[in-house]
Design brief:
Blueprint lengths: L16 E4 L4 E4 L9 H4 L11 H8 L2 H6 L10 E4 L4 H5 L2 E7 L4 E8 L7 E2 L3 E3 L6
Parallel strand pairs: 3-6
Antiparallel strand pairs: 1-2, 2-7, 3-4, 4-5
Length: 133
């Protein structure tokens, strides 16, 4: 399946996604496209496919998921863009991202959309498909 915005192939390999039934979502395990900006990745068109700040907080506080997604401070090179929670910031072209260091986690909502760094990438989320009985 191809992304309707960037036309890149979307990897639906189940081994690359982590199901989080408590939140009814499935999250990409690996952060990818590092060192590219929000603008480079055209994420404005795909913002709804990113984790929310609330989802990040909940996942980071559930150890079994935080560990698999490296949101537990075990990696300082797996930061990722998230949905901007503030309309004012979005209006002023600021984007948001999640970071977890060895002794703290951080949500930055004041990042320039054309900014990038070697540890910052993207991790998409999708609704968890409920298996009907």
């Amino acid at each position: 399946m191809k992304c309707p915005h960037c036309k890149k192939e979307i990897d639906n390999d189940p081994s690359r996604w982590l199901d989080i039934p408590e939140l009814k979502i499935s999250v990409e395990i690996e952060v990818h496209d590092k060192n590219k900006s929000w603008d480079d990745l055209k994420l404005s068109d795909r913002e709804k496919e990113l984790l929310t700040y609330d989802q990040c907080i909940k996942i980071a506080n559930i150890p079994k998921y935080a560990k698999i997604l490296k949101m537990d401070g075990s990696s300082s090179s797996d930061d990722f863009f998230i949905q901007q929670p503030f309309d004012l910031n979005r209006k002023n072209n600021y984007v948001a991202w999640f970071f977890a260091g060895s002794d703290y986690a951080y949500l930055n909502c004041y990042w320039d959309s054309d900014g990038s760094n070697s540890t910052l990438g993207v991790r998409f989320v999708k609704k968890l498909k409920v298996k009907r009985k």
